[in-house]
Amino acid sequence: MFDDLSLVFNYTLVHATLRASTPILYATLTCILTQQADILNIGVEGIMLCGAFMAVTVSYFSGSWLLALAAAVLVGTAISAVMAVAHLRYKADIFVVGMAINMLALAVTRFLLQKVLGTSGSFYDKAIVPLPRIHLAFTDGNEILRSLFSDYSLFEPLGIVFVFLLWWLLYRTVWGLRLRSVGLNPLAAETAGIPVFRKKFEVMLYSGVVGGMAGAYLSLGYSRLFAENMTNGRGFMGVAAMFFGGGDPIRSWIGCLIFGFTDSVGSRLQSLGLPPQFILMIPYVATIAVLALALARKTANERRARSALK
Amino acid sequence: MKRKSLVVVALCLIASCLFALPAMSADKPVKVALVLAGFLGDKSFNDSAYQGLERAIADFGVEVKVMESKNPADWESNLIAMAASGYDLVLACSTQIAELVDKHAADFSEVRFGVIDGAVKAPNVKSIVFAQNEGSFLAGAAAALFTTRTEIPGVNDKKIIGWVGGMDIPVLHDFLVGYEQGARFIDPEVKVLVSFAGTFNDPLKGKELTLAQYDQGADIVMNVASNTGNGILEAASDTGKYAIGVDLDQDGIYPGHILTSMLKRVDVASYELVKDVVKGTFGGNSVVEMGIASGGVGLTDMSVMKEALGEKFPQDILDRIQELTEKVKSGEIKVEAYAGFQRN
Q1: Were both Cys, which of A86, A294, B113, B191 would link to A92 (CB 3.0–4.6 Å)?
Q2: How does pLDDT run across B101-121, given as a tens digit for each residue?
Q3: Are B321 and B221 in the same domain?
Q4: Chain B hits for A225, Cβ within 8 Å
Q5: Distance between CA A93 and CA B162 in Å, rounded?
Q6: Residue B333 in contact with partner chain A when CB distance is under 8 A
Q7: B51 in the same domain as B142
Q8: In this complex, do A228 and B198 lie within 8 Å of one another by their Cβ atoms?
Q9: B208 to chain A: which residues are within 8 Å by CB?
Q10: Which helix (DSSP H) or strand (DSSP E) does residue A244 occupy?
Q11: Are residues B169 and B311 in the same domain?
């Protein structure tokens, strides 16, 4: 039994956790940006899916991951611009807009997969150029070091950089302060001379950029293919992680790591003969647990805040 | 509001006329509908079924319609829609659809159903099942032999092999039973890691499970997962390890990383079913089993791997597999079957 446990919990779990948490992390960052301006961006799933499709298509035809990334970002921005116009200019409910984008993305990518790439289900080809992998030559001799530090896809370490960059932007710059004030109290922000509409629009566009990158990572970093509905709820898990962290990038990242960890442990437990039905439940159980934790903390905070006023 | 609904009704009428026209004017060629529990493009089970139909189109000029969906809620309506719209033969390709045929075949007594990968007994249904346990036996034996060849790059010294399946359904257990027996036959100490992705349509899940098995010491993993398997094969090529393909010859997808593929001639099954209808020899209430002896299952000749590995290629594995193939054929080796998979 101890032998078996060491097959589940060993050093390779670190790499696996980081890899599995990264797609969720980019989705979370997408949501955090807009959440800080009080916009719940559940369209992230659809943005990612379109970005993933675009990235694979452009990479396949052009042979350049840079162009593919740019195209994915462009698509993400375009979609979020549509969402921004619908929500901000025409006052549509953001939840409805987001759902519409998700459903549209599912259908459009399926349609284009057949029309542009001439296949259905999934598309892969040797001509698809993936995002670069960082191979550290000095770790070659040591299996443990190599697993821990080497062979990450470019966007995996970059995602962690983004976490801290976004945290700094939100909590240490004037831009972030103004953005948060727009989210917390738009009336006060407007009174203070902050252009609320423009600020919200701006941040929606930025979230489209990150959402596009999330998609590109999913199809060119995490894998090297496009599959129908390949996001498979990862965008929603990103939303959950964002709630877990209350919009704070670092805390939300921890939520993503929990998801990545449970997923990786689940994959390992299964191969030891545990019933797959239970293992496949893990991501969903983890989501509920993570959200319950976040809610418990939030209500505790509110209770404390209320009693302090008395 | 009233005007709007009138417009909708009018549009529906026009649309139904458009769709109805070809059905009325051209009922000469035999019409075949293929109902899948997934999508074409899996380079595996579903594509194999379609390849058989392509040959049937070329040979008999039949008309083919394919209904794809990964959503279980759609499968039943797809099947009923095809049965109800005048197709001569409705092919139910996969165990899950077979169960639905069992439920509805009596309602459409004038339609003939061909079932692949499931056994349904009804006067208008002919079923073909495969002895995937026999083919997997060979795959398991090949994997168990391969995992000890540490001179081949990417092969470790642990006697661990892997197996990743799609949905947890009886036919996959039939694969698994054979695979495990094959591995044990070569070396009782070989450990087989087993995972189910829970879906045939999530390559990322397949990749994650396969990478986990590689991390746990497996160096060769068998794919039995349709579209999910695309991720399994990708994991092999990403990490410089090995996989075994399934259904179609997948050896060439990532040359040098796929030792062999367990062929399951779904294409032969779909072709034969269409041929039966065209020639008028379609007999209901029958279940045909295709095993190693009838060429329904088997391994590839590993030629792609041979070319990729050059002189490091373990020729003795291939020889041993050929020897085992003959023994299974002659009945000298009896391959266990999964009791939960209904064969007749």
Answers
A1: A86
A2: 999 999 999 999 999 999 999
A3: yes
A4: 203, 230-231, 234
A5: 48
A6: no
A7: no
A8: no
A9: 16, 20, 263-264, 267
A10: helix A234-244
A11: yes
